[in-house]
Amino acid sequence: MKKFITTLKNIFAIEDLRVRILNTLFFIAIFRLGSFVVLPGVDPNQLQDNTSGIFGLLDTFLGGAFSNASIFALGIMPYISASIVLQLLTIAVPYFQKMQKEGESGRKKINQITRVLTIVITLAQAVGFVATINAEAIAINTTLFTITSMIVLTSGTVFCMWLGEKITDKGIGNGISMLIMIGIVSRFPGAIVAEFLSKQLNGALLFLFEILVLFLVVMSVVMLTQAVRRIPVQYAKQVGTSSLYSGQRQFIPLKVNAAGVMPIIFAQSLMFLPSMIASIWADSSETANYIGATFSDFTSWQYNVVFGLLILVFTYFYTAISVNPNQIADDLKRSGGFVPGVKPGLATSEYIDAILTKITLPGAIYLALVAIFPAIAMLFGVTREFSQFFGGTSLLIMVGVVLDTLKQVESYLLMRHYDGMMKSGKLRGRTENIAMVS
After folding, report:
1. I want to staple 352 with a disulfide (CB 3.0 to 4.6 A). Which of 74, 259, 325, 333 is the partner?
2. Banded pLDDT at 283 (limits 50, 70, 90)
């Protein structure tokens, strides 16, 4: 505990870091405040719960802004959708591939296209969102309400984008990811209180057991996020002006879960299709009714089997498009590096691809287990709200954002620490990466 307090003192002793943390808290407070500002023309007392299915998932990411019919009801999600679309286009369309290779100017163009696409997606989703609001809650003319809501919701999403960029520039962590995480974490206190009250006094021991299981699940997700397979790389010897430097030994870190949370997002978006399609023939077919009911219940074994298989497929797919063994091999060859015992070029690419395939399988299986664990938790009596924190997209996003933020804070501490050592003239624990041979 003393070490923890000392670390906090060190964090706030660094002026730049202290200002960034305070800026982040200020921007987050604005974001949370906007989640409770109701759209003009809506009577909040007449709002009904419409957070089932995909709406419940959106409401979890948005911290209740969706169910509150607030000005941030769509939040940052349209921007996420636009970013995914642009990311896929840079892989499939040569025009966007060329733009991505143009460096800083290309990235600016892609960012501008992403913002424009975000506005288009937000306008389309705003119409759908208005349709989810029950007529009793709308206190003005329906047509006027639809038009004004489209404008306000689009403005709210653009403002959330601006907050995210400000957090990235002036605060700590990735702003967009931070806003999503805050929306998820804001539901945790209410969920844990509801879970405790549902167990009552005679279930206190069971509640403590659930907390223990949650802790173990979080730790395992941290391990999955951090796990890497290191491929040793040797660099050729270099001749200096008066000395010969032996090769430097480094590693290529291949993440066990290189796809991150994207396979779950893709798979979850497809899992709504069976029930939507089945609803078309719901009145005339018992089979359609069965399919619709089965795939509307995310605790059914049919739903989870299909969900798990889709995650396995999408994990391999997204890993294949995000990690390019040919490019890694070419970069190594150009820089004079090689994997010991493997020929440079094609052989190195095949070697990296074989290792990537092997480590992706256990990562994909565990990712599927993490995704379906909330359904398993519900089968054991955990409430729906609290079960969302036992796995799935919510937990992966929270762990990823927290780890990235802690890395940034740690980098500030390390820089300050090294400055102090340099001024004092004492260099302890110094290691030589390049051995000098006379």
Report:
1. 325
2. low
Q: Which band of pLDDT confidence, cut at 50, 70 and 90, is reported for residue 411? A: confident
Domain spanning 199-424, CATH class: mainly alpha
Determine whether domain 14-186 maps to CATH 2.30.110.10. Answer: no
Mean pLDDT on 236-265: 70
Do 199-424 and 14-186 fall under one CATH topology? Answer: yes
Spatial distance between the Cα atoms of 342 and 63, rounded to a whole number of angstroms: 50
- Answer yes or no: is pLDDT of 333 > 60: yes
Spatial strand order of the sheet with 436-437 comes to 238-239, 244-245, 436-437
Q: Give the CA distances from residue 400 to residues 218, 221, 409, in Å, rounded to whole numbers and listed in that order.
A: 11, 9, 14
Q: What is the DSSP letter of 389?
A: G
Q: In terms of DSSP bridges, do strands 249-255 and 337-338 run parallel, antiparallel, or are they unpaired?
A: unpaired
Instruction: Tell me the domain boundaries of the chain.
Output: 14-186, 199-424
pLDDT of residue 215: 92
State how far the Cα of 147 lies from the Cα of 143, in Å rounded to an integer. Answer: 6
- SS3 (DSSP) at 105: helix
**Which are the contacts of 270, defined by CB distance < 8 A and separation ≥ 6?**
310
In whole angstroms, how far apart are CA 107 and each of 160, 241, 352? 20, 40, 28
User: What pTM was estimated for this model as a whole?
Assistant: 0.76
Helix (H) and strand (E) counts in the chain: 18, 6
